[in-house]
Amino acid sequence: MMKTSVATLAVSLIALGASPALSAPVTHKVTTVNGLKVDKYIWKDSKGRQRSVSLKKEGNGNPGHGGYAVQMTYKTKIGGVWKTIVVNASQTSDGGFGYFVSHERYRDFVGGGNNTIARKVFKTDDSPLSLRFPVVGKKVTLQNTNAIAHQFKLNYPRYGTIDPIPKDPNTGNDVELTPTDKSKLKLYTLPVTVTWVFQNGTDYPRIRTKVSLSDLPGPDRVNFDLRGPYGVMVFDDGANSTIKRVMWGDRFHFTSTGGNLTRNSTWTWNQANDGARYNALIAGNYEMGLLEPKTYAASTWVDGYAEARSKTSVTYKNGNGCPYQDQLVPCDWEWPYQSAQYSLPYDNPNGTTNFKKMAWGSAAFWGTGPSLPRVYDTPNSYRDFNGFPASGSIIYNVCVVLGRTTADGLTKSVAVGPQYNCATAAVN
Questions:
Q1: 99 in helix, strand or coil?
Q2: Structure pTM?
Q3: Largest Cα–Cα distance of the chain, in whole Å?
Q4: pLDDT at 11 over 80
Q5: Quick check: is 428 in a domain?
Q6: Element (H, E) at 5
Q7: N or C, which terminus of the chain has less Cβ within 10 Å?
Q8: DSSP 8-state symbol, 271
Q9: Following DSSP, what letter does each residue of 356-380 receive, concatenated?
């Protein structure tokens, strides 16, 4: 009777969505990975298999700064045998994953010129990688005993005007030119908190990003997009092979078609997306992706303008591709998420790339006030927009998907929801 009762209970728990993985806590240890001192988090996924993320520590003898993943591992079945896949940071200046990046919006200036304040006036980078800045990191204990979080705090620079410059609500253009007089400009600070959440019984960790507007006296001084989490990982079992396909989902699903991704790849971007926003790269038999764990309809995210959205490579510009670049794929700036568009060679439209940059993305109007209540994403469609929340902070969540790819795309299938197999534990 006792054996039967235990077995029955186990079946009942599985039917209710419980998992044996939940019986063990997420573990944390300070160790060395690839010569770097890290905080390593280990948990059991939905199949009870071990996954891990190793986050580079600030200081502790490490070169540069910390605050991002340098290695992630998971197990997958290949030929009937479970194998550990090790995903390491690219050995490049932007290698690693999960750090914050933001691009300053281009403006029209007094005296002529269209550029960013950082580049035109101060001759400096308008989108620095936050891995170049010091961070304060710590483990965070959560009320959910099956989850642990790790938090990084940093200050991100953002140039803007001292006096507000509102927007024309119909075009999004500034109602007046931006001054070049340095006395009328200022370097503001955006305090950023990046929190990784690891949870037993789920496959994918969640990255919660909080951008504070507390240093700003009000809206319409700064304008920026949000591209974190950001970085480059070799996710295809160490092969570092050519990117086969790029996929994403905003209001519509996008996928490149044909062979390996090039600037002349055919594509579709016209299938309505009823699931979550996502961005994915596929190389070999492997995939890395990001998704927002809510449906597009429920998202407060807004995309930049793209005439190619809702079209295909046949219907966009009569099949002639981007009118400003020698490529069939949408113009680089039309991609809603930063991906492989800046990695493909510009001198060879049929050239491929193995550089696996993965990032999030948005329209570049964050920091804007009520003067811009909506943002157009095509000539005929728009999303309501609140670029300066009353809370004083911009908060969003993105899940990190890793695994063997599928015919329809792993990340796309996960984004169907409503359960995203992603850490859900609440973070303050």
A1: strand
A2: 0.93
A3: 87
A4: no
A5: no
A6: helix 2-15
A7: N
A8: E
A9: -EEE----S-BT--TT--EEEEETT
